[in-house]
Every structure is written in structure tokens, then in C-alpha cells.
Amino acid sequence: MRNILNRFSYDDLKVVLAVGEHGNLSRASEALDMNHSTLFRRLGTIENILGLSLFLRRRSQYVPTVPGAELISLAHRVEDDVNGVLRSITEEVRGFSGEIRLTTSDALLYDYLVPLIASFTAKNPKISFSVSIGNESENLSEGQADIAFRATYNVPEHLSGRKIGSATWAVYGSRKEWEGKQIDCKHLRELEWSSFSHSLSKLKAFMWIDSNVPKEKIRFRGNSVLSVAAAVSGGIGVGLLPCMHGDENDNLVRISPVIPEIKEDLWFLAHPDVRKSAKIRDFMNHCIQHLTDERSNIFGIIP
Q: Label partner for 50 (CA 20 to 30 A): which of 59, 175, 220, 289?
């Protein structure tokens, strides 16, 4: 085995990858800028070193064997790792540039991310941000965003990230109407409400209201935290809101205890391949460090 490792090189992997991707020696030799007969001999030498047949020859077509397919898969991973390291080194030497695509909720963007984006771009003036507002993480898997900042209790296994706190929820009313007042939870069903639209039916807050408040008591439905908060601030009933947003809104006042069954973890998420980028890692670390340092202020629970 040691003899094989000494004789097999990264350039050999590139040869196997080119033949596997192009399917024949003519196109592979063009891609490698290598003579056709030289490539033929080189592939034969590689197979002799390994003692394996990497391709089945079918007329002009080269079809990978099982060992060939494994080496092609390895070559893809090595190529991705090399490109990732080179990008990271280049970014760190020349300074960060380009675009970071971020997806989050409107409330998290409004309350926390805007100042963090501002402080990051002040240090990295060649960086720009494209932000999409939504409540799903699928756009990370589909490559539509680089980073997601989410309140969730179900992190997809294929994503990597860091939990930085938990979001608790309580019932809020307009300060003008509810200042200095509290209400027992058993009487909440007697009030008029602002709630969430059915597009947010997976939200724990939606399910709690759906189970505890008669539908005829709901006077407003919004498809985001900010829309419901605006309705409650304007006097359209009471509403269930995350404490980290409701407590910072001067027009709102908390009128119930924290509802323990409604709790969601806050995560910065990214696809593992995306996190290889130095600028992505640096921005995530920038945000995580601030939110961790301010954890008691941001996630502390007011009685």
C-alpha cells in the first residue's frame, strides 16, 4: 500500500476525472491539453499502479468501473477542497469582495442583522449583501442563498451551523391600551386577536393560537412577525410575538407570562461547501460573536 501511495499522485486523479467526465480519450485529452496517445499510456500506467481496471472500454466510450467511479468521486471532493482553500487564501490576502446572499425573517433582519451587516461592510467595503425575506431554509439547499439566520426547532441534517440562543414568545398588546395591565392565560380566548396567515401554519405560534383562540376572535392575519406586531401596535387586538421583538417595540407591552411550549432555537446555517469561503466564515463569526457577547441583553427573559 505504501508503494502505491508513493507512486499515485494528484495529477493521476485529474486524469481519471477527465476521462470519467468526458467519456472518451479524445475529449479528455483536449481538456487536459495532452496528446491522445500520451493519455492512453498514462491511464494504463495508473491502472497498473493500482492493479485495477478503472474503465470498461466500449468502442469509443469509457465507462467507469466501481473502483473508477470511487476515484472520480474522490477527485471531485479533492478538487472542491483545493478550490475552496485557494478561494479562501485569495480572499484573505486581497481582502474580501463580492456578494453575500442572506435569507432570514423580517423581524430578525430588522432587530439584529441590519446593524451587523452595517458594521461588517464598514470593515469590508468591497462586500455587498443580497437579503431575501422568508421563513423556509430550502433556498440554502438549492443554492439560492449562502447563509440563513433562522428561528427553528428542526435543523436539516445536510446543513451546518451554530445555535446562538432561543426565542421565547408571549402575548402582547398595544401600550396605549394595555400599559400596567396583565391578563390570565385562561381569559385570552375572550380577547380579539391579530394572528398569522395560513402560509405560516408550521409556526408553533400559529398552532398555539389555532388551538386556544376561537377563529371568530381573530380580526387580522399577517404573513410575518412585523405585520402582526404592526397590527397589535395599531390596536387590532392582542398578538403572540417573540419576546426579543416585542420587548424592544416601544408601542407594545407584554401582557402574559412567557408561553413555555412556544420556544424556537436561533441558528446561523449554511451549506458545508459554502462555509469554505473565508468571507462567509468571517461574516458568520462576526454576527455570532456579537450575539454571543450580548446574549444576556438579547435573550434574557423579563418576568
A: 59
